[in-house]
Specification:
globular, two-stranded antiparallel ribbon, 3 helices, mainly alpha
């Protein structure tokens, strides 16, 4: 598990590229099983829903940029 900012940034970049390519193998490996995020329309999406949207071609990203980052550690 990445612990330093450069390690975390490298994993975030892997995730960004996997999302842009709809790389299901990489997304399966990188996304936490309990993933929940809000979509641009305010809907809540879990890991299975996210993978399904990429698989079905519903999720097509042409650009993805990360904004400001803040790193916080909890436990190990």
């Amino acid at each position: 598990m990445p612990k330093t900012l450069p390690e975390i940034e490298a994993k975030e970049n892997e995730l960004r590229l996997a999302m842009l390519d709809s790389d299901l193998v990489q997304l399966e490996a990188l996304l936490h099983p309990e993933l929940i995020f809000s979509g641009p329309d305010g809907s809540w999406v879990g890991k299975a829903d996210d993978l399904d949207s990429h698989r079905a071609g519903v999720m097509k990203l042409s650009q993805m940029d990360f904004g400001d980052r803040e790193l916080r550690h909890w436990g190990d």
